[in-house]
Specification:
Blueprint lengths: L5 E7 L4 E7 L4 E9 L7 E6 L6 E4 L5 H14 L9 E8 L10 E2 L2 H9 L8 H14 L5 E5 L9 H4 L5 H6 L9 H14 L8 E7 L3 E7 L2 E5 L21 H8 L5 H10 L2 H6 L4 H9 L3 H25 L4 E5 H6 L1 H8 L11 H5 L6 E2 L8 E4 L4 H15 L3
Parallel strand pairs: 1-6, 6-8, 9-12, 12-14
Antiparallel strand pairs: 1-2, 2-3, 3-4, 4-5, 7-8, 9-10, 10-11, 13-14
Length: 404
């Protein structure tokens, strides 16, 4: 029998599991799916085998992640792609926070899982769900290599002067307070694809990556290594996002506690779930915001202007950090699909060698592409991100290199 070449990628949330099964001979997707509302009466599983394209849907209570993964296994088995298949080489898990210890994909052992648990205080919303998915998958296939791919890993190359906050060192070290960054698998994938677009080795290219979805982050990538990123200890810092504030004066927290009488939990909810675009104008969907702008809505226009202003600040800051920039790349839901965002973010930066070709920018495509005119000194690119493929590639590379 030939060596197994399939990888199942799992992204376990607090009440959901997203999954994809890929064949690493060519990176082809064999099946994709989602289980949502786990633990509720209205649980739903949506499964699509790519070969037929015939989407199947279940709506029945799914009590926990174990039941969810068993349901996923049943759907895969119905297509001849079951978890017991000898062609399955590994299960790759997205893990949000790896701290400083995990700077690369890692085969999950009891010791690794214990360290991921120790990081829960700095990722209380994400790591517990990731851990649940790992434990469930290990119970279902204890003989199969399970690999953790960390959102933070790509950013561990940041120099200390970029990663440390200017607070008391002993306090920071005692409580693991530093800038970790997130969306790392996306930033790694996109920066590498940009180098390919330019026909260069990633080690030769400096890129500013703008991952713009409901969550949004920027990174400065020098020769394939992250040297700065906008998210920090948590995913709250940095750009204006769908529901997150991004950068604010830390004293805003003290002010709200002392003057408004808000609790720590209330402030947490405010900054993470009731701020950003939704806090500014009531919508976090960029399509709806643009529609409102076209109708003359001033609140929507102001929200858009604040969003773009923050983007420009980070582009300029990371240009200064890198010294030389070969490309600026837009990715994720907004970055890939919102042409007005791309045009507005680059407008006025001609002196930095940046420009957008209006015609190229208006073209919609699922392929990586350049949207800058030929004369531009710095390329502007749109690169659809593929975090699942990145996780699968990293997982497969690890298990094959270690002979697992």
């Amino acid at each position: 029998m030939t060596n197994p070449t399939r990888v199942l990628v799992l992204n376990s949330g607090s009440s959901s599991v997203k999954y994809q099964l890929l064949d690493m001979r060519d990176g082809a997707r064999l099946a994709i799916g989602l289980v949502e509302r786990i633990g509720e009466e209205t649980s739903r599983l949506v499964h699509t085998p790519v070969a037929s394209g015939e989407r199947r849907e279940r709506t029945a209570p799914i009590g926990d992640h174990e039941a969810a993964l068993k349901a996923v296994a049943e759907e895969l088995a119905a297509d001849g792609l079951g978890l017991d298949s000898p062609e399955l080489a590994a299960i790759g898990h997205r893990v949000v926070h790896g701290g400083l210890k995990f700077s690369a994909p890692t085969v999950i052992t009891d010791e690794v899982l214990a360290e991921i648990e120790r990081l829960v205080p700095v990722a209380p919303l994400h790591n517990p769900a990731n851990i649940t998915g790992i434990r469930t998958a290990r119970a279902l296939r204890p003989d199969l290599p399970q690999v953790a791919v960390f959102d933070t890993a790509f950013h561990t190359t940041m120099p200390e002067y970029a990663a440390r906050y200017a607070i008391d060192t002993e306090t920071a070290d005692a409580h693991r307070i530093r800038r970790y960054g997130f969306h790392g698998t996306s930033h790694a994938y996109v920066s590498r694809r940009v180098a390919g677009l330019l026909g260069k080795d990633p080690a030769e290219v400096n890129v500013i990556v703008l991952h713009l979805g409901n969550g949004a982050s920027a990174s400065a990538v020098a020769g394939g290594r992250c040297v700065d990123t906008s998210m920090g200890l948590t995913p709250l810092e940095g750009l204006v996002m769908g529901t997150r504030s991004g950068d604010v004066d830390p004293a805003v927290v003290f002010h709200l506690k002392r003057v408004a009488g808000m609790s720590t939990d209330e402030i947490d909810v405010l900054l993470n779930k009731k701020s950003g675009l939704v806090g500014l104008c009531g919508d976090n969907d960029m399509r709806e915001i643009r529609r409102r702008i076209d109708e003359g809505d001033e609140r929507a226009q102001l929200a858009f202007d604040i969003y773009i202003h923050r983007l420009k600040k980070y582009i300029g800051a990371y240009y200064a950090v890198l010294g030389r920039v070969d490309a600026v790349a837009f990715t994720a839901g907004v970055g890939e699909n919102a042409a007005p965002v791309r045009e507005a973010a680059i407008a006025g930066l001609e002196e930095l060698g940046l420009a957008v070709d209006t015609g190229l920018n208006a073209i919609r495509s699922a392929e990586p592409r350049l949207i800058s005119p030929q004369y531009a000194r710095v390329a502007v690119a749109v690169v659809p991100t593929d975090e699942e493929l990145e996780i699968a590639q990293q997982s497969y590379s690890l298990v094959t290199s270690e002979g697992l």
